[in-house]
Write a structure and sequence with these properties.
Helices cover 49% and strands 6% of the residues. The chain is mainly alpha-helical. Helix 10 packs antiparallel against helix 11. It binds s-citryldethia Coenzyme A.
């Protein structure tokens, strides 16, 4: 970041001395006012619950322009990566800052492939869960449990350990996710198969059985790879900020990613894809849309898969996701899937309704993902788990960037205290 020839002067109407604050610029996007010395200079904190106007860090990984609806991974537009790249090359890009050349690509793919198995003890870890446990609860436990298996890669101050932990997490998430699914349906686990692609291997571990050879459908593998790319990273969203905050205390990477998974589960965040499909099923037919929209306006519920803290325009990922929905439904589902009809009519109505227009509410990445994943055979409860699988690379890339930042400190926000002023203890016999 570079100091700009500008400063912010904070003046007070009560005659307190004004304070000059430096302004820094990045390469693109809003400048920042550096308030690190504000408390020392004024005895006051800033106040920004929800961090609507707060930059928590500097980062070179992902850039979002919410007004234009643009998303760049290390400078590359998401639309180009989603249609021309594959997920593992995108992982390499997010982790290393550049797309891999041929030999780097081969080495990275091989490295990930050779780490896809998990310790056999993991099977016994799973047995502690009820069969009907939500897979997000299981995954949070499994990933947190990884730190119990990999002491050899949890010295977070060792760059080599950080790198191997990143590879292990990217490589093992598909295996763990598939194990959580198989455990829930009472089917045997499928071991990874090294001659398959990342997405193809995952589809086989999810839907294959030991009873017959599983044929990977290339259309589904490609669509899933694209869905993983779309979900790979997204600047300082709630779960990424959770990973950074957990990492700032020196917690090991597996524990930090488990914290990110837990945060992603919320319906306002990654849990929205599951809620969005449930919403479409509840609406059922285009005829019921007007009544549903009235309920949204009466604030009875939100339009799931719509709205975004940053995008005040169309989420570029939603456009690519909508294309994937058509492709998958053409390949394996019903191109006239009633849920797709409901989704498209609901989008049309909302985009032309003043209530949504004035609040700049557009479809986000979660609006169409559920229809696509459902057509691919994934149960609704697996949708957020798939989001976590794909986002693991973004979380770990952001965690690595934070760990490599020499100015990194433990994150410790302050507050505006509104509780009781000091008072003396009252013994129980004298309380009212
Ligand atoms: C993800 O941050 C990221 O980058 C996240 C993510 C990523 O890749 O990591 O992009 C993934 O989490 C996408 C978002 C998925 N969530 C949903 O689809 C759930 C539905 N969306 C909303 O809950 C909401 O839009 C949020 C949480 C996503 C954003 O909320 P904000 O920015 O805090 O905005 P807000 O709640 O202050 O809303 C502003 C206004 C309010 O109305 P008023 O009080 O001003 O009258 O818009 C309304 C809200 O009530 N509003 C909605 C709405 N979203 C906002 N009204 C109806 N339906 C909605 N979906």
């Amino acid at each position: 970041m570079k100091l700009v020839d500008n400063k912010a002067t904070l003046s007070f109407s009560n005659g307190s001395p004004s304070v000059d604050l430096p302004v820094y610029a990045g390469n693109i996007g809003p400048d920042v006012i550096d308030i690190r010395k504000l408390y020392a200079q004024t005895g006051m904190f800033t106040y920004d619950p929800g961090f609507l106007s707060t930059a928590s860090c500097q980062s070179a990984i992902t850039y979002i322009d919410g007004d234009k609806g643009e998303l760049l991974y290390r400078g590359y537009p998401i639309e180009q990566l989603a249609t021309q790249c594959d997920y593992l090359d995108t992982c390499y890009l997010l982790l290393n800052g550049e797309l891999p050349n041929e030999s780097q690509r081969g080495d990275f793919h091989k490295l990930v492939t050779n780490h896809t198995m998990v310790n056999e003890q993991m099977q016994f870890f799973l047995r502690g869960f009820r069969r009907d446990a939500h897979p997000m609860a299981v995954l949070t436990g499994l990933v947190g449990g990884l730190s119990a298996f990999y002491h050899d890669s949890t010295d977070i101050n060792n760059p080599k350990h950080r790198e191997i932990a990143a590879i292990r997490l990217i490589a093992k998430m598909p295996t763990l996710v598939a194990m959580a699914y198989k455990y829930g349906i009472g089917q045997p686990y499928m071991y990874p198969k090294n001659d398959l692609s990342y997405s193809g291997n995952f589809l086989r571990m999810m839907f294959g059985t030991p009873c017959e050879e599983y044929q990977v459908n290339p259309v589904l593998a490609r669509a899933l790879d694209r869905i993983f790319i779309l979900h790979a990273d997204h600047e300082q969203n709630a779960s990424t900020s959770t990973v950074r905050l957990a990492g700032s205390s020196g917690a090991n990477p597996f524990a930090c990613i488990a914290a990110g998974i837990a945060c992603l589960w919320g319906p306002s965040h990654g849990g929205a894809n599951e809620e969005a499909l449930n919403m479409l099923k509840e609406i059922g037919t285009p005829e019921r849309i007007p009544e549903f929209i009235e309920g949204v306006k009466d604030r009875k519920y939100k339009l799931m898969g719509f709205g975004h803290r940053v995008y005040k325009n169309y989420d570029p990922r939603a456009k690519v996701m909508q294309q994937s929905a058509h492709e998958v439904l053409e390949a394996v589902g019903d191109p006239n899937d009633p849920l797709l009809q409901v989704a498209r009519e609901l989008e049309r109505v909302a985009l032309n309704d003043e209530y949504f227009i004035e609040r700049k509410l557009f479809p986000n990445v979660d609006f169409y993902s559920g229809i696509t994943l459902s057509a691919m055979g994934f149960p609704t409860t697996m949708f957020t788990v798939l989001f976590a699988l794909a986002r693991t690379v973004g979380w770990i890339a952001q965690w690595q960037e934070m760990m490599e930042d020499p100015s990194q400190k433990i994150g410790r926000p302050r507050q505006l205290y509104t509780g009781p002023t000091q008072r003396d203890y009252v013994p129980v016999e004298r309380r009212g």
